[in-house]
Amino acid sequence: MLPQEIIRTKRDGNELDPADIASFVRGLTDGSVSEGQVAALAMAIFFQGMSRAEAVALTLSMRDSGEVLSWPELDRPVVDKHSTGGVGDNVSLMLAPIAAACGLAVPMISGRGLGHTGGTLDKMESIPGYTAMPDNALFRKVVGSVGCAIIGQTGNLAPADKRFYGIRDVTATVESVPLITASILSKKLAAGLGALVLDVKCGNGAFMDNPERAQELARSLVEVAIGAGMPTSALVTDMNQPLASAAGNAVEVINAADFLTGKARDSRLQEVTLALAAEMLVSGGLAANSDEAFVRALSALEDGSAADHFNRMVAALGGPLDFLADPEKHLQKAPLVAVCTAQREGYVTGYDTRGIGLCVVTLGGGRTRPSDPVDHAVGLTGLLPIGTRVEKDTPIAMVHARTEDQVTMVRAQLRGAVQISEAATAASAVILGRQG
Ligand code: URA
């Protein structure tokens, strides 16, 4: 079928067959389908949706648009986690080494931050010498020898998604459940995973701001992944407040280092990290149930083996040897660290979590366009969980900045993003649901 006939079929609410979807994706990849045609199909899908069978066909065609990895040399289950993105979400930095320490292989292909959400790759790149974009040989070597490698996506994994996402981004068609599903899963399927665990964020710092939409995305991701042959489960987790007490790049690495070495652990972050680790161990067949898996994950954290795996991964990818012995020695520091205080007494009762992410963008630690550089040193620390009692002038965060102007701007933004009220309210649970 011609591209315009494929667009017409979907525009009119009819089902596309897999061969037509495959031919459109081939044209998307080789450039023979124009940008206008891609945008038109994206908009038609945005309004008409897709059946699960269509979404599976789109996902598989996008997976097959480039290289598809496999891991025949590994004698361990290959499992990864993907998060739909949030603020203070540094889970991957702890989860990959915990899972590896428990016996999984974790080839974690991560993204950069965009807008208010942070990106795992930017965080890892704040470690001097760390090769976030290794060649395939080094990537495979590190996954084989250490058990985990957190790296960036190379151009030849699901290249159709790169072009499709770029066009969706500028045509207001990102927020479509089947398109998000195919975009995320095509890349994970191309990484050759045996199983996948998803962290679908829900709240005012996430893509999906209400539980119904988040559950809908989680269900779509799980059903399409299983339809495409990859066992998958999903947790829906709260993003109505930053997950860690830090937001930024180097500051989130320090937070993760403290978590791994036991110096300090944010409790909601710990709950999500261990729950996802348990999902990974069960789906990889290394534990019979989530209780057993949870105990194994916790002991990998407590006995230092997860920290050891993180250290070995960093060193194997070109970073400092024994990074965790003194992470602050290696990381860039912002020249100014200024306190932001509460302007009234009461309780922290809510966050504009997106606003907290945008504070990091104001500081230069996030980006508004994919090509923007990021400042690894800046960010926020000391963010307080919902429910915390504060007095007037109690610190509500520390601002790590380059200039006094940034401090002034971010103090005002922060105060607008942290709600303090007379009466305490309980934070919602951090794990809101499960699919799979
Ligand atoms: N993340 C992706 O990788 N793709 C989407 O479409 C949305 C979020």
Automatic annotation (TrEMBL):
Supply the Gene3D superfamilies for this chain.
Nucleoside phosphorylase/phosphoribosyltransferase catalytic domain, Pyrimidine nucleoside phosphorylase-like, C-terminal domain, Transferase, Pyrimidine Nucleoside Phosphorylase, Chain C
EC number(s) of the enzyme? 2.4.2.4
Gene Ontology molecular function: any one: thymidine phosphorylase activity
Catalytic reaction annotation: thymidine + phosphate = 2-deoxy-alpha-D-ribose 1-phosphate + thymine
Q: In which pathway does it act?
A: Pyrimidine metabolism; dTMP biosynthesis via salvage pathway; dTMP from thymine: step 1/2
SUPFAM superfamilies given for it? Nucleoside phosphorylase/phosphoribosyltransferase catalytic domain (SSF52418), Nucleoside phosphorylase/phosphoribosyltransferase N-terminal domain (SSF47648), Pyrimidine nucleoside phosphorylase C-terminal domain (SSF54680)
Which stretches make up the Pyrimidine nucleoside phosphorylase C-terminal domain?
Answer: 347-421
Keywords annotated in UniProt = Glycosyltransferase, Transferase
For the protein in the UniProt heading, the enzyme class is: transferase
- What do we know about how this protein assembles, alone or with others? Homodimer.
Q: Which family does the record assign?
A: Belongs to the thymidine/pyrimidine-nucleoside phosphorylase family.
What role does this protein play?
Answer: The enzymes which catalyze the reversible phosphorolysis of pyrimidine nucleosides are involved in the degradation of these compounds and in their utilization as carbon and energy sources, or in the rescue of pyrimidine bases for nucleotide synthesis.
Q: What is this protein called?
A: Thymidine phosphorylase
Taxonomy of the source species: Bacteria, Pseudomonadati, Pseudomonadota, Alphaproteobacteria, Hyphomicrobiales
Which gene does this sequence derive from?
Answer: deoA
